[in-house]
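# nightly structure sweep
# worker-07 picked up a monomer target from the shared queue
# config: single-sequence mode, recycle default, output format = structure tokens
# input follows
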Amino acid sequence: MARAKLKILLVDDELDARAGVARTLRLRGYEVLEAATGGEVLSRAKEEWPALIILDIVLPDIPGTVVFEKLRQDPITKTIPVLLVTAKSDVLGKLADFSESRDRALEKPARLEDLVKTVQEMLTGRR
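# output follows
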């Protein structure tokens, strides 16, 4: 019997960027669900219960930082690890220190190898 694929919810409003990351993760054996807005991730996270959420900070409707806080406040989604990604390096400096947390942050554009390594570390609990 084949093992179930780990589900990742990938949130980015840039279709080309999202498609490239989704393709890479699927080739690594993950099931990838895609979303383009903060509203989508808030509802899909509750419906799909992904093993990990990759969340762009710049979204067209709700800032990713607000989405992240809402995910953490909701009893249903508060334990799902989140990888925050952004092209705005000044935002990364303002984010909480994730050294003692299951959550992480990564600057865009990240090399796909670095992104995959971070995803694997987060899903296995290793750093």
